[in-house]
Amino acid sequence: MSGRLEGLGVVITRPRAAAEALAAALEREGARPFVFPALDIEDLPPSPALEAALALLEEAVLAIFVSAHAAERGVAAAKRRGPWPQRVQVAAVGEATAQALRNAGFARVISPRERHDSEALAALPELQADRISGHNVVIFRGQGGRERLRQMLEARGARVSYAECYRRVRPQSDPAGLLQAWARGEVQAVSVLSGETLANFVAMLGEEGAPRLGSAVLVVPHEAVAAGPDARRFSRVIVAGPGPEGVVNALGQLRVTS
User: Fold this and answer.
1) Any idea of the CA torsion for 170, 17, 21, 106, to the nearest 10 degrees?
2) Which of 84, 114, 218, 243 is the most buried (most CB within 10 A)?
């Protein structure tokens, strides 16, 4: 039986493990995925800054994890120091991150149900001033990144620290095979998770690949990514719902309307 994405060529740019999971979901619907990671994740070596943030965890009311990578690496780093402090609640920006925390043994995870971004998380009752003012909040994340969440929480009186436990890097991959498939008309869509991933992808394709972008639809998880300058290189941008099912549904709508 043909799937709703039968024959649709989709480039998946997320880190390889996550890319393979999305590729499997797309294949079940008949799509042809091209796994081409435009972002890799590397562990950061132990640092005084990370140790200081982990030490503050004992006195915190909330630990926020911005990605599944932060959940996996951050919880492991914290537990190397001892058991997780029972009074510290955990929060996740998105569902994949929330699931990673559940997999790590947390029965209750604070996470938005609709939009999966920092603004939606910050709107929840557990992150309002009456809950966090005057208290420590530790944000587990990769090296660098958006400051918006910290700014919102500090404006509510929280003392915010970063526990940076990994770094994002651009892979050194040869795009020749992907560009050949694109030239044969086998690529119709590209899926990215962040503006950084998109910028890496465009840079990895180089001058040879730049003209190809206008023939494909870009699928992103958030309006902020859709509004970036690199997104305008594509024929169309679609904001998808969370998780692999969100990407499948977005591409399914594309196939229906195209």
Assistant:
1) -110
2) 218
What is the rounded (10 degree) CA torsion for 71, 73, 75, 77?
A: -160
* Distance separating alpha carbons of residues 2 and 114, to the nearest angstrom: 30
* pLDDT tens string 65-80: 999 999 999 999 999 9
User: Which one of 110, 132, 167 terminates a domain?
Assistant: 167
Handedness of CA 6, 238, 69, 58 (dihedral sign): negative
In tens, the pLDDT along 150-187 reads 999 999 999 999 999 999 999 999 999 999 999 999 99
Structural domain containing residue 27: 9-39+171-257
Judge whether 139 and 147 are in contact, CB under 8 Å: no
Residue with tokens 């996740």: 92
Separation between Cα atoms, residue 232 and residue 156, nearest integer Å:
36
The domain tally of the chain equals 2
SS (H, E, C) 57-123: HHHEEEEEECCHHHHHHHHHHHHHCCCCCCCCEEEECCHHHHHHHHHCCCCCCECCCCCCCHHHHHC
11 pairs with which residues across the strands?
Answer: 34, 190
How many CA within 13 A on the CB side of residue 84? Answer: 18
Q: Is the pTM of this model over 0.90?
A: no
**CA–CA separation, 175 vs 160, rounded Å?**
41
Q: Which residue, 121, 152, 167, sits at the end of a domain?
A: 167
Q: From CA 21, how far away is CA 60, in angstroms rounded?
A: 34
Tokens representing 235? 């024929």
Of residues 159, 91, 163, the one with CA closest to residue 120: 91
